[in-house]
């Protein structure tokens, strides 16, 4: 497996050109995000990722996790690496200062999270879920819960989980059966089973704080009867330190296709009738609380697609430079050449590069929209940015995770037969990437959410505004410059996106199943076109900086070329997605279920 280097130059460029870091830093809320701070954060995070976390990626894949006497033992070196992460203060980077964090923008924290996920996806899942748990407790917890749990969770000394899924329910959260019974002291006794709990048990932190969805005895059926509870692994002593063990346990750790060093646990609560939990928010508000951390997690999972794509791309390029085989058409001289000179290998490498960069821009834009919604001083601006974040969240989760797997698969192809051999490491990236399509709401659920909920918000004003913004940008591209062909491709794809959006917006209220049938194709269409817009923005800015004599000539030339490649080789796929988006559900259900 090749070494990993954080793409800090591209991260910084996207933060500037797409996320508009200067505008975010100009707000009172994020005024600490000066240029010097951003540069230092990216550089130091890249060092920790490359030097400490990346070397453990293959070790974790090979050793996996082991459940011993109720404790999950992490692979060699993971505990030390996590300790360095905590000691560096990285866990509180994007948390508010009021709860012990550093108060920096989430888009910067997102760039840093990409480094963790690229270097070691399995290990990165632990802090990712902890940060979502912190957000839920900060937004919905009582002062007592916040003071008891947030300081140690923000520091990373304690970690958090989301305990949602149950064996019989799957993605149907409303079908959960876990119970919560109120006690005289105001606590609740929790009883039930949860599955697929990432880092539900491990030996890297001194306490694990589970956020558990459960149903009180008199609660109504379905999602309206769900509440959320803080259920610590160790109950707290009077001084706030971990005290006696709570009545919960890890029953098993799943054997998985990938992310072997991330323990996916089956958890049992209240086997002895003594599992204590504390209500988070009010009864029957569990779904509201869940979406607070779920939306955070969905953007983070989309980012994992970017991260794995970047790691797979770096490895594929390194292999293609070293692998000597054949003589490319048009090559001069005798003897075999590096496969990086073959046109088809270049096609694959450029595709990997362009798709990854487009998704990085999408993920950072979504995170920056969240920052702008939080830091804007006017209600109108807050609504505008929140609306954009709401629209882009399912697109980021699904499109970026889809793309990450595509890129990782292409990385295996670049390696040829050696890509199918585990020792190269190319296969691990592909295996690790596969889960991102599934957890935090499958990509099909994201597509349904986009079509059924997000398109309908405020009469469609948010998606119409975003498409109009992209169209106005396309019209501003010169018809004579190097991006003229890209302008044509972007304009055509935007027409398709606009027409498909209008069709689904109108058809969903009348025929939701018909609209659902085209939802996955529509989400891919939305992601591809948004990617084209964001790549064109970056490419044109690169051309401007080149003309102005910017010192980083090689980087800017590569950015311009990558953007034009995306628009000419990848963006045209969008036009082919119109028909499956609007064709309805007739052919899906024409064959009876028993005849499939």
Descriptive overview:
With 596 residues, the protein is α+β, with helices and mostly antiparallel strands. The chain has a domain at 454-587. Helix content is 55%, strand content 11%. It is built from 20 helices and twelve strands. Strands 3, 4, 5, 6, 7, 10, 11 and 12 form an eight-stranded mixed sheet that branches. A two-stranded antiparallel sheet has the order 1-2. A two-stranded antiparallel sheet has the order 8-9. A hairpin with a 5-residue loop joins strand 8 and strand 9 (242-245). Helix 3 (35-53) packs parallel to helix 6 (106-119). The chain is globular and about 80 Å long. The two termini are 42 Å apart. The model has no long low-confidence stretch (mean pLDDT 95).
Q: What gap, in angstroms, lies between the N and C termini?
A: 42 Å
Strand content: 5-15%
Major beta sheet summary: 8 strands, mixed
The backbone outline, from C-alpha atoms, is globular
**Annotation field: number of helices:** 20
Helix content range: 55-70%
What's the total number of strands?
Answer: 12
Oligomeric organization of the protein chains: single chain
Q: How much is the radius of gyration in Å?
A: 24 Å
Low-confidence stretches: none
The averaged pLDDT comes out at 95
Category by helix and strand content = alpha+beta
